[in-house]
Amino acid sequence: MEAVGVTLKQGLQLAPKETLLAKIKTKTAIVGVVGLGYVGLPFAVEKAKVGYRVIGIEQNPSRAEKINRGENYISDVKDEELKALVESGKISAVTHFDPVPEMDVIVICVPTPLTKNLTPDLTYVEKVTREIAKRLRPGQLISLESTTYPGTTEEVMLPILEESGLKVEEDFFLVHSPERVDPGNKRYTTKNTSKVVGGIGPASLEVGLTFYGQTVKRVVPVSSARAAELVKVFENTFRAVNIALVNELAMLCDRMDLNVWEVLDAAFTKPFGIMPFYPGPGVGGHCIPIDPHYLEWKAKELNFNTHFIALAGEINRKMPEFVRQKALRILNRLGIPASKAQILILGVAYKKDIADYRESPALEIIRLLQKDGARVLYHDELIPSFRDRGLEMTSTPLTEEVLKQSDLVIITTDHSYIDYNWVVGKARHILDTRNATRRVSSFRERITLL
């Protein structure tokens, strides 16, 4: 037995890549997922479903405890699947990095926010990388899935990891494979959304492609980690720019007394050369308000100004103020001073049918209206309460009495569970920023569209 142990140890030292590839292909590799949020938990479930043992590292003790009890908190994960995987020992969670040495693959899914000055904040990525570096061993693959600027994996993570004394491409392997999660999307999931992978070198790319290919239907290789990083920020910048275009069109249509929704619906009947994007009260979530600024910041480092990105961000950030101005105009027309008005915000999630209010424009609209002296309530069954930068509120039940007492209802999230015919029938007036009332035929005079 001792001779066999020595042989295995020497084999690992001589061929970390071949040893790791064999583990990945036979599903005997232990997978670590750092960050069990909207990206990390669905990913962990998909890997566990095909046979891998997954250990989640989650800094939020409450989340880790829920995982270990088999309790789900992410809408894109099926309750019964998570519970079964936890009970079978395929998924577990810890709040520390001690299990890193036993992990063969470590996938990092931590936040990459912006500072107040709209510059990248890589605090979470750097902290996690240092914790991994302390425990790094030969034969491990590290993959960064967090969205970031081109160069992060190679310029920030790699030097930290090599402080361990181990060498990339020889002892360990490093890739960037940006997440493509669309919360609430029932059609495209972690499994059937194509995965881009870029490695620090050819060995890292081979290992990364093999790992992701076990569960993702289509894996797309690119020439480097930097290219993979740019793919992701471009995807979200593309969306941000086009949303800004239709948001600006909405503001122009307001001046021209035209219905922007009618204009767009007609334009989108063209079968080529155009794709649908719609305006709204602003942009929210973990991607569109943040990711383009990562690319903008990196470009400035290279003495290059990304004019489209900067302008798109400026336009999208104006939308809450535009909603406020339109709300004040409605109140003025009704003869109600803002300081004496009660306003009901319908939906604070950044997107319909999900329980996520990160960067939601509804929160900024609430702040602006409160500054005007209005009494602001909100209703959102998916978000019973929230706390955000000093703003703390609890959802108000959506009752006939609340609707009749409110001088204005502002639809900021078009949740499917709301009966908009009923709301319009009971409300005094509605400002619809999502065109949620498009199928409502009665009392149209009570509705003002964005």
Average residue pLDDT: 93
Give the spatial strand order of the biggest sheet: 3-2-1-4-5-6-7-8
Number of strands: 15
The helix/strand class is alpha/beta
Shape verdict: elongated
String of helices and strands: HHEHEHHEEHEHEEHEHHHHEHEEEHEHEE
CATH architecture identity of the largest domain: 3-Layer(aba) Sandwich
Give the helix proportion (percent range): 40-55%
CATH topology of the largest domain: Rossmann fold
Number of helical stretches of at least 4 residues: 15
- Radius of gyration, rounded? 25 Å
Q: State the name of the first-level CATH class of the largest domain.
A: Alpha Beta
Report, as a whole number of angstroms, the end-to-end distance.
74 Å
The CATH homologous superfamily of the largest domain corresponds to NAD(P)-binding Rossmann-like Domain
Characterise this structure.
With 450 residues, the chain is of the alpha/beta class. The chain has 2 domains: 222 residues, NAD(P)-binding Rossmann-like Domain (Rossmann fold); 211 residues, Rossmann fold, CATH 3.40.50.720. The chain contains 15 helices and 15 strands. The radius of gyration is 25 Å and the shape is elongated. The N terminus is likely disordered.
In short:
This protein has 450 residues and is α/β, with parallel strands linked by helices.
